[in-house]
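Quick log. Single chain, no ligands specified.
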Amino acid sequence: MNLEQTAQSFEQALSACWEKLQLQARMLTGNRQEAEDLVQEALTKAYGAWPGFRGEASFVTWVQRIMANVYKDYCKRNARLRQVSLEEKWVELEHAERSLALGDDAIQRLELQDLRRSLEQALARLPEIYRNLIILKYIKSLSYEELAQAFECSIESVRCRLYRARLEMRKLLVDLV
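-> predicted structure:
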């Protein structure tokens, strides 16, 4: 395959999964600019390895694995854990707050604000893997299959990790209340 054919076949494979890659990068980084950088670096590596792609996994799974490795390397280089922005994740809770704001029930409004604050604090204290799992499952409504693919593990592993994440979240919420 010549260089032009390689580029065309890579572009065709990429067009089918571009949005999925963008979503995963955004969930990993919590920041649009960093997500774009992550996708760009992962695609650069994937393009370089494209001639050796054997098709044992789907193209999107292959690129997601590359992107996860690029992100892990990035975190190691910067020696810090990434935190997903919580402010933009609580759409449903914000909607409920706005609904209550229209009424006169100040006590309910304060309780809801306290709940939100407690949830944000507990979520921020979770280990990164648990935090990302909870956000992807309960805020972004990803299926177990999508989570397994994104985290490169079995569905059973996702269920087990999610169970542990919920237990940890409960402990943190009890401490905060």
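The first helix runs from residue 3 to 15.
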